[in-house]
Amino acid sequence: MNWDWTRVVRGLALATWGAFFAYLWISGRATTYIGPKTAWVVTLGALTLPLVAVAYLWGARSHPRAASAREVGANGLLIAPILLALMVPAPSLGALAVKNKRTKNPPAPIDAPVDGEIRLYEIAWAADSAKYAAANDLATGKAVDFVGFVSRDKLPGGQLELSRFFVSCCAADATAYSVKITPPAGEPPTPVDAWVRVRGTLAGQPGSTLSVAATALDKVSEPSNPYN
């Protein structure tokens, strides 16, 4: 049978991308690269690209044509990012990224109420905005239980800084949120970049000096979705 090898090469490139999206979808690793608002792209790619690839390959069974070196090279470049992603898995953003991206936290969205468990970035918003803290009952003495990674240690008063990135589109637009933690008395040092679960209560003044007085600080594994 004669083949249109230009269509074959393009079809294989599309099939490779479809397989990669399917892998991200099934394994749950999509959040390593993109945020929840754009996660639909992975699902759509996993479902549609294999079908498009089959259509390309079906149409390659007639009209014989050789694939040029330029065509092969262009499609090789098209799938090169997949090979890089598989050979060098993207590490989650950590303390160095917090340092490089450190800016004042974005303004607290007053119309975004706390829903369920209090998360690190909601405490960070309350530390910046007394209005947000009052609207969501984030007052001194409020019990909290959340997970973050150590972005700075050896702060004045023996405090630690815990951070977590929030991704809306992809890792490139990640925003770092940070809160200060007072560890329990006698707590051994916690290394930078270590993920920990913090249980304790809010302390200090919302809108200015709000922090967390921890009653327990336990090392945990990195969450399956570190950007949330």
Automatic annotation (TrEMBL):
Keywords: Membrane, Transmembrane, Transmembrane helix. This is TIGR03943 family protein. The chain crosses the membrane at residues 6-26, 38-58, 78-98. It holds the Pfam family DUF1980. The lineage of its organism: Bacteria, Bacillati, Actinomycetota, Thermoleophilia, Solirubrobacterales. InterPro entries: DUF1980, DUF1980_C, DUF1980_N, UPF0703_membrane_permease. It comes from Solirubrobacter ginsenosidimutans. Residues 9-103, 140-227 form the DUF1980 domain. NCBIfam families: TIGR03943 family putative permease subunit. PANTHER family: UPF0703 PROTEIN YCGQ.
